[in-house]
Design goal:
This protein is mostly helical and 172 residues long. Helices cover 66% and strands 0% of the residues. The chain contains 9 helices and no strands. It is globular, with a radius of gyration of 15 Å.
């Protein structure tokens, strides 16, 4: 499945523009990380784009989020690496994140939320201020620093890459 087809499939299932925008942000972060790790940019981007394809379908059943998405993607004949990462990105599923891509998706999902939430409350956007706020959120929130160590990147560097990616995204 190419990116254009993936985006069409996503739009068939996500009607909330905020969730669609968030998917685009996670896609951009994943592409930036793929470049950093010399990985397959298209594959990582597709993973970020499609990771919440089941979000609206599983709103009232958060334990199925990721599992249902993986089933949808399997039926669309999406690459198994993408399917696995989508399945593993939800902590409730207790599926180990084995590859860098799995770990990157997990972190990108969180960081995208932090960045979007911060930017929606603070104007104008000043990258240094956003970076510091996001780092504070990381250190006081659900993300443990070992998640970044497992991926092989420092928190600060991850946030800087994520902000660089975020600046490239436009509303759907």
């Amino acid at each position: 499945m190419n990116r254009a087809q993936a985006f069409e499939e996503l739009k068939l299932r996500l009607f909330d523009r905020h969730i669609l925008f968030r998917s685009l942000v996670v896609e951009a972060i994943m592409e930036e990380l793929a470049g950093y790790f010399n990985a397959d940019t298209a594959l990582w981007g597709l993973t970020g784009l499609l990771h919440d394809i089941d979000y609206e379908k599983t709103l009232d059943r958060p334990g199925l989020h990721g599992i249902t998405g993986a089933e949808i993607l399997e039926n669309l004949d999406v690459d198994e690496a993408v399917v696995y990462s989508v399945r593993a990105h939800n902590d409730r599923n207790n599926i180990p994140r084995k590859r860098k891509m799995d770990k990157a998706l997990y972190l990108s999902d969180f960081i995208a939320d932090y960045i979007i939430n911060y930017c929606s409350r603070h104007k104008p956007m000043v990258p240094e201020t956003i970076a510091e706020a996001v780092l504070q959120q990381i250190r006081s929130g659900e993300l443990h620093p070992d998640k970044f160590e497992e991926l092989g990147i420092a928190e600060q560097e991850f946030v800087e890459l994520a902000l660089k990616a975020f600046e490239k995204v436009t509303e759907p």
